[in-house]
Known about the structure:
Helix content is 37%, strand content 9%. It has 414 residues and is an alpha/beta fold. The two termini are 47 Å apart. GO terms for molecular function: catalytic activity; iron-sulfur cluster binding; metal ion binding. This is Putative DNA modification/repair radical SAM protein. It holds the Pfam family Radical_SAM.
Amino acid sequence: xxxxxxxxxxxxxxxxAKYDASCASSGTKKRDSAGGKGxxxxxxxxxxxxxxxxxxxxxxxxxxxxxxxxxxxxxCINRKSSNxxxxxxxxxxxxxxxxxxxxxNYIEGLFLSSGIIRSPNYxxxxxxxxxxxxxEDHDFRGYIHLKTIPDADPELVHKAGLYADRVSINVExxxxxxxKRLAPEKDxxxxxxxxxxxxxxxxxxxxxxxxxxxxxGFAPAGQSTQMIVGxxxxxxxxxxxxxxTLYDRFALRRVYYSAFSPIPDxxxxxxxxxxxxxxxxxxxxSDWLMRFYGFKPGEVVAAADDTGMLPLDIxxxxxxxxxxxxxxxxxxxxxxxxxxxxxxxLGVKAVDRIIASRRWRRxxxxxxxxxxxxxxxxxxxxxxxxxRPTALIDRVDLQQRLKPATEQLELFAA
Length: 414
């Protein structure tokens, strides 16, 4: 096989990394190279697809160390039996690429994952070496996200947290049955054990940092995971319950959902078609309901149909409100914050503005319209000083009235 140059490797391994959804730079501590010390920064504008909590776009070099793998997971395009073009970076090549891209102002950080080569320990050593060299040899202060390998020695996984801002340990599939069927070489108990160990190390690092200013940081942006949606028979309800358990047990910053996509030379046990991308979107919305809107997992699952699937034509909060119409309408001038957060069409910022405004005056429907993007979705679910929905909340066709209109886009529109 001819030897590949760096550009060819980058084309292969950057494309292979697109299946990793868990790529965000939120939550880390601020570092920069002001004063002439070090190189890189976790701040500033970039051109990419990872976003900070304040909405800034952070550019990351997102690649695999290699797309070769000794495992044969049915759903993975880089599995051992897959007929794809293979490539591999050395640790030094990734370091130099990261520094070179940073100096050209292309990136502000690195997201590094890998297939398993030789052994989990050998691969984890290479991943850690990239981060170590960037931090210690080049004083790189930009963002680093490492995808760790749960089968590797715990000490190696721990070292990753010493150099990375965030670490990921993927649970892969929502159910243990699905994991055994589609990735028999992976062990769900071992994956959760690695996540538990990482949580303990993050908690210990945060405690030491509070007591000793000189204590080294440990994964300040926490840990995340990723689940593949649609490769097995798990329903949306199964996925929501699994995500809630992971948040509670391991204090994850994020659970990412990646819609299964049919791959070349796919295994016969996989579905022939990918799930609708809207399903992935609805799962992210349900995730937001649990994390920011005070919904319990059982309440989100209650928005699903009899098969456990969330509706695709309306969002989960609206689906829940339509199922539990007896909770509405809600008086915007009197209702507590937790009930206002359940009103379809009201976001967290809008609710906080309503609570702040109603301290000074009774709010009318026009006031609510100025505090939100659109008041049309709210009207059946709220009471204001000059508005009552009367029988609107009980209409049989309410879902059809509130469902977003289908729009045919023009092919050659300007």
